[in-house]
Specification:
Length: 333
């Protein structure tokens, strides 16, 4: 992402979070002064994307213990409960808890939070390089939701692969989905692609299968919020449908995520908790009703793509292909 717009800024003594709900038309930051402020920003979707959520939560713990060291456990629970599906959230919090057990002071926690933030950017650059190598010359790709600098510590995961592929001259065209109901693709991914001059077109979520009958798409590239031990992957709702369409039309499917997204304690996708949110996100748009008043809705915000529909999982340690539990454990060991 060009320019100096940063989604997460530690501006001691506050954490500044770019409010992604008002992009691309407004650049506005939320100044968080407590763990509750950060948890509210995460749950309210001001900050989103699994890596970014983990980074923000780490800083949230720092804010909590600076105010009162006795509130560590309470702040941990408040932050952990803000988004249950994204494993990076719990991973970052557990990493800070280990630091706290060894040395319970705010400065040590802050150093660890900064390290998590900096490591994520370095990991994304490696993910981008590994993923770009899988794309042939003149590749046409589809991506879903937002997995760029806005969703991470910088550069991005799936969008980082696209960014690296473009820099290497491997990329011909990107199609990015709207990503209903929050339109992260239309608002955020489109903004990042446009800022960098990457050739891209917006496509309705439901039009991707049709697109695959009209264009030779080479890869679908997505991020992940949790990857189970067997390779089943939870990601933004609509990902599973893209994987099914890709398999039907001979399109390869790539998941790009840092190693912290793997949850080896989770045997398969059936064990991944799937967050469901208020029906109003579907029945209203910017507070205006688009469905009959009182109408109910089923609103899961993630789905699970089975490992057998995934051609490659790319993390900063390398590429897993074909995807299997044995290959995952070997790469992560």
């Amino acid at each position: 992402m060009s320019g100096a717009v940063l989604p997460i800024v530690w501006a001691d003594p506050v954490l500044r979070l770019l409010d992604q709900r008002v992009l691309p038309h407004e650049l506005s930051y939320l100044d968080c002064q407590s763990a509750e402020d950060v948890a509210s920003a995460i749950h309210g979707m001001a900050v989103r994307g699994a890596p970014a959520i983990g980074i923000a939560a780490a800083y949230g713990l720092v804010l909590a213990v600076r105010r009162d060291p006795q509130t560590f456990d309470h702040a941990f629970r408040v932050l952990a409960d803000s988004r249950p599906t994204a494993v990076n959230l719990r991973w970052a919090l557990e990493r800070l808890r280990e630091v706290w057990r060894r040395r319970p002071d705010a400065d040590s926690l802050l150093a660890e939070a900064i390290a998590i933030h900096e490591e994520d950017l370095a990991q994304n650059l490696k993910i981008g390089a590994y993923g770009a190598e899988l794309l042939g010359q003149g590749a046409k790709v589809v991506t879903h939701c937002n997995t760029g600098a806005l969703a991470t510590g910088g550069h991005g995961t799936a969008l980082g692969v696209i960014r690296s592929a473009w820099s290497a001259g491997h990329l011909a065209q990107v199609y990015n989905t709207e990503t209903r109901p929050w339109l992260q693709g239309a608002r955020l991914t489109a903004w990042e692609l446009h800022e960098e001059g990457i050739p891209a077109k917006l496509v309705a979520d439901g039009a991707v299968a049709h697109l695959m009958t009209r264009e030779k798409i080479d890869w679908v590239i997505v991020g992940a919020d949790r990857i189970a031990a067997n390779g089943d992957t939870a990601n933004k709702i609509g990902t599973y449908a893209l994987a099914v369409a890709a398999r039907r039309h001979g399109v390869k499917f790539m998941v790009a995520a840092p190693s912290g997204t793997f949850d080896l304690s989770c045997p398969s996708g059936q064990a991944i908790p799937i967050e469901e949110r208020t029906p109003r996100e579907l029945t209203e748009f910017r507070g205006e009703p688009v469905a009959p008043l009182g109408y109910d809705a089923f609103n899961p915000v993630f789905d699970v793509t089975p490992a057998d529909l995934i051609d490659a999982i790319v993390c900063e340690r390398g590429v897993i292909s074909p995807v299997s539990e044995e290959a995952i454990r070997k790469l992560l060991s």
